[in-house]
Amino acid sequence: MRYQEAYELIDIAVAEGKIAYPISPSLKEIFFDQILEETALRVVKKRDSESFSTSGKSYIFTNANITEQVYKVELDKTDVPFVPESSIISNVSDDDVSKIGYYLKTDVSTGSISAITGDSPTVVTSASHGLSTGDYVLFSEIKGHYVTATKASHLNGKRLVVTYVSDTQFSVAIDSSSGTTAYDSGGVWEKDNKSIYLTKNPDSGDTLNVFYYAKPEPKNNISSRIDLPNQLIPSAIHRTIAHFLDLGGQLQMGSGHRGLAEKLELTYVETSRAKEPMPHIIPNPMQSFVTTRNGSIGNLTGADD
Q1: Which one, of 205, 88, 75, 186, lies nearest residue 140 by Cα?
Q2: Is the pLDDT assigned to residue 129 strictly greater than 70?
């Protein structure tokens, strides 16, 4: 199913619900797209990974679908345990750290936008931005600067790597040189360096593999395919309808749609994961024990085969 078809189904249901306040297309898209991502991360748990050649303690994720739902980290095929950042003591020698661990961190700062060029690459003007080449930023609230034919924003909602141009300008690898409606006003960027940190320096040239549950594929426009199993798309639609009904004070009707969504998700989980190992539920050491003892992670009874 495409986004356009899902939006149309939401429009029909909202009209039937006789909600007193108007629902703009942008508001509908914001809520549905957010619920879609939450459903994908909570129910589908699509897996992905990113690898780094080690050199130092910190590594910035470059995959656009990265989330903080990391379920496994390996250093040259050896499991690396998670360590809370709050337990890290600064200025400690590697010799005093007995075992290597990892923690996740997102470096955040924000800035306002005063101009955007229609070029390739696209150049953004932002006073004293403080960004460096290789940093990642998320864009929002930009008026104008969209594809004229489809109205799709070149930058809003996207996480892009920046290249330093000057103290007041940086560029992103977006071609907006033709078919673009000019920048109007506004716009905010948010630094979004999602990184993994190690508690001590690994050997240089090792392979660090990070496995995580990924975001769904991003929407380019309303004709884009929804990156969710067909069984779960109605669930996201029902949850969106329930949200608008709740806001309109029709709690009973909203509860009915939410109940349908929960049943659809439960059915999907029961049918799709009946014999699937769940590394986010069973810790890695326990998986290894169960697999070694019984020959299969599917046997959780403790009895020998």
Answers
A1: 186
A2: yes
Residue found by looking up tokens 């980290």 in the block: 73
Sign of the dihedral through C-alpha 202, 204, 207, 210:
positive
Scored b (16 or more CB within 10 A) or e, 52-61 reads bebeebebbb
Mean pLDDT, to the nearest integer, of 293-305? 40
- Structure token pair of residue 33: 């797209």
What is the distance between the terminal CA atoms of the chain, rounded to a whole angstrom?
44
Q: State both tokens at 165.
A: 């141009």
pLDDT tens-digit map of 135-193: 999 999 999 999 998 888 899 988 899 999 999 999 999 999 999 999 999 999 999 99
| DSSP structural state of residue 201 | P
Question: Which residues on neighbouring strands pair with residue 142, listed in sequence order?
Answer: 186
Q: How many residues does the chain have?
A: 305
> The dihedral of CA 224, 230, 235, 241: what is its sign?
positive
Distance of alpha carbon 129 from alpha carbon 115, whole angstroms: 13
Instruction: Look at residue 85 and give its three-state secondary structure.
Output: helix
Once rounded to an integer, what is the mean pLDDT over residues 191-205? Answer: 93
Q: Which amino acid, one-letter code, is at 67?
A: T
The Cα–Cα gap between 234 and 246 comes to 18
How open is the CA angle 180-184-187, to the nearest 5 degrees? 100
Concatenated DSSP letters for 140-156? Answer: EEEEEEEETTT--BSSB
